[in-house]
Every structure is written in C-alpha cells, then in structure tokens.
Amino acid sequence: MPKVSLNQAAATLARRLDRLARVSEERGATTRTFMSPAMRRAAALVGAWMKGAGLSVRVDRLGNVIGRTRAPRRGAKTLLMGSHLDTVRDAGRFDGALGVLLPIAALEVLRGRGLALPFAVEVLGFSEEEGVRFSSAYLGSKGYAGLLGVRDLRLLDRDGISVGEVLAAYAGGRFSPPGPAHGRDELIGYLEAHIEQGPVLGELGLAAGVVSAIAGQTRARVAFGGRAGHAGTTPMAMRRDALAGAAEYIVAAEAFARARPPLVATVGRVVAHPGAANVIAGEAELTLDVRHPLDARRRAACRALRREGRRIARRRRLSFAMDVTQDNGAVPCSRELTALLAGCVRKRQGRCVALASGAGHDGVVISSLAPVAMLFVRCRGGLSHRPDEFVSRRDLEAALRITVDFLVRLGSRFPR
Ligand code: GLV
Ligand code: MN
Ligand code: MN
Q1: Distance of CA 150 from the midpoint of ligand 1 (Å)
Q2: Which of 93, 105, 121 shows the shortest CA–CA distance to 195?
Q3: What is this structure's pTM?
Q4: Is the peptide bond between 235 and the residue preceding it cis, with omega within 30 degrees of 0?
Q5: Hey, how many other C-beta atoms are within 10 angstroms of the C-beta on 296?
Q6: Is any ligand 1 atom within 6 A of the Cβ of residue 360?
Q7: pLDDT at residue 339, rounded to an integer
Q8: Ligand 1 centroid vs 246 CA: distance in angstroms?
C-alpha cells in the first residue's frame, strides 16, 4: 500500500463527498431516504470505497453498510466509527456522509503508514437517521443495536406502507428484527464525526470541537379532523376547517417554545386532505419535533402541546390526535473517550470546546451498545439541512488529522 499523505487523503475525502452527493432520488438535488434505490446505490459506492481501504464489507438486513478491518488477534476488541448515509430532502454533502467517509480516509492513511491498530475497526454507514420517510429517526442504528421494536415496524409512510413491509420486501420475503450486532464487552466505543450544524465553532474560529451530550428528542404525528366542504357555498361560521386548526396549532407551538428557551418545537410538514383550492380541508396532518437538553422539560412541553391541540380542536369542533413516533432521552458522551478526543483537537488547534448537540445523531442509539464520543466539525455559517452546507478543505484535513491521531493514541493504550 503506497503512503498516503494527509493532504492527499483529505482531497480524496472531498472528492468522495461530492461524488456521494450526486447519488440521489431527485435530479439536481441530494435526497436519499430509507430503502430508496438511491440508498442502495450509495451503499454500493461506499462499500466499494471501504473495500478499497482493505475492509471486509457486508450490508445487513436494515441496509446498513458495515466495513470491518481484520482483527489483529483473536478476542481483540472493536472500535465502532460511523454515521448515516440517508439525508433530508434537498440536503447538503456533509450531514452524515462525513462521519462515514472520514474514518475510511483515516484507515487509508494508517494503512499507508504501515501502522496496524491493536483493535478491529468497524465503519458503519447507517441506512436511516433523518426520519424523513417514517417521521421516526434512527431505524438503521436501531436495527444494528438490536433495538428495532414492533412499534417501529408498524410505522407508516405517507403511502401507508409500513417499515415492516419495506424491510420484508428488501429481505425478499419475511423480516424479523436482528439482535444486537455486538455484545457490549466486545466494544471499545463509538466515535462519530459530524458537522456542527450550528454557528459556535465558526464564531470561535475553531475547525473542530467535541460533544458533551446529545439533546433528547420527541417526534409525533399530529392530526386535526374536521369536515370537508365546498369553498364557495359553506358559510364561514358553519365550517370545521382542519387546516385552519392546524395553522393555529403551528403558531401556538412556535410561541410556546419561543417563550421557553432552549426548548425548540418544529412543525416541518403539513398535509391537507383532500388538498384542493376549492375544498375546505377535512383533515390535516402535521409532524411535530420537540427537543430540549433536559428530558423532564421536553416531556412537560410535549404534554402541554398535546393539551393545546385539544383546546384548539374543541373550540373549532375538530378532532385531535397526537401519536408519538419517536422518543429519545438526552445522551451524555463518554468522559474517557471524549477526553482522549479533546486532547487530539487541542494538539491540532491549541484549544478545544465541548458543545451540546441539539441535533440527533446515531450515537444516541449506539450508546446502548458502547460508550460514545463525537467530533464536531465547523460548517460555514452553521448552515445544515440545505444544499449549501459547506466544510472547507482545510477543516476536512483538520478533522482527518484529529481522527488519525485519535486512533493512534487509542491504540497506544492497548497491549500489543
Ligand atoms: C437529524 O439531523 C436531526 O437532528 O433531526
Ligand atoms: Mn446527521
Ligand atoms: Mn440531519
């Protein structure tokens, strides 16, 4: 294996991020949702890069791509590294993809230096983290961790197809949820690199930072039911307009969260039925996403938003339903692994800050299997979940240098 300089490896990483962004289910945009043909193409592409880096590759029943280095000896432990390959609609190039492609690049650098690690590394490209298709995130990592439950399998997409049906079709017949991919005692930990998706590192002029904890998150489907009717002939006072009720709810949820920072509440999607200009909406469905660093505050907010929905519905003679599709508590990162990572960040840039993550990450689920550490990488303007998400080449190289250093330092803690 020829020596690969960090600079060359960072250039390859940038090229691969560009290439992967072109794998999409929409022309002219980057969109990859769970189990779409684009996700299969992405898995094949990333799997080929993994193989090129000397990893053995498999794709599991959830569509997760898993690349593994050869264990240096029997019974050697495993370090997990990775993130997700699915995206939001019209996404950027870095959210998720960076955390999958960065460890591949780091392993290529180490291989080029002839440096063997005293543990195995498993690089994970999870098939679902964003929760776009089923309004519930982490289906890929839940499958990997053995946490996929009956409730997950019953979730429906907007066409009424369930997660269970999609996975059975993928398996070519029946699907039963897998057990955990590893026992806890086989694992050293899980390292996830991710763009910050916020402005703090940029403001501080730092390329990278570490994560102290990942905020908890609840997602729900909210539905208002009214009566469809003619837009020209039904007097205003006689209407039961489900969409107007939904609109009131959206504004109420916004005001509620605004008054209680750092609580955030978002309605990201509204679907009105039957959905025509000249028909009063008989039904309106919304997604609700609620986050807070403290679990008790998040749960209290969800209870209050349920009461608010009921109040609005009662006043407008509508029905109201709120079904929780996802509920994850806040996850603290591992003190030990984070201290090691912070040392590598400091070596690179002189100082290191620890940030709490408001965004969800696969580490939330993988924390059930192994201690978790996260590296945050600066992204321009803190912008994410949009096509102009951007990480500079210099920052990619910094993240790569930190990751290589982390692997070497972690390796020095193990007996050869
Ligand atoms: C994932 O990007 C999330 O935090 O919603
Ligand atoms: Mn992400
Ligand atoms: Mn995301």
Answers
A1: 23
A2: 93
A3: 0.90
A4: no
A5: 9
A6: yes
A7: 98
A8: 23
Note the pLDDT tens digit of each residue in 238-283. 999 999 999 999 999 999 999 999 999 999 999 999 999 999 999 9
Atom of ligand 1 lying closest to residue 291 CA: 4
* CA 32 – CA 366 distance, rounded (Å): 22
- Kindly give the number of the ligand 1 atom that is closest to the alpha carbon of 130: 1
- In this structure, which long-range contacts are made by residues 237-244, counting pairs with CB atoms below 8 Å and at least 24 apart in sequence? 239/280, 240/280, 240/316, 240/317, 240/318, 241/280, 241/281, 241/316, 242/272, 242/273, 242/281, 242/282, 242/283, 242/284, 242/318, 243/270, 243/272, 243/280, 243/281, 243/284, 244/281, 244/316
Residues 398, 344 contacting (CB under 8 angstroms): no
Q: What is the phi-psi region of residue 309: left when phi exceeds 0, alpha when psi lies from -120 to 50, beta otherwise? A: alpha
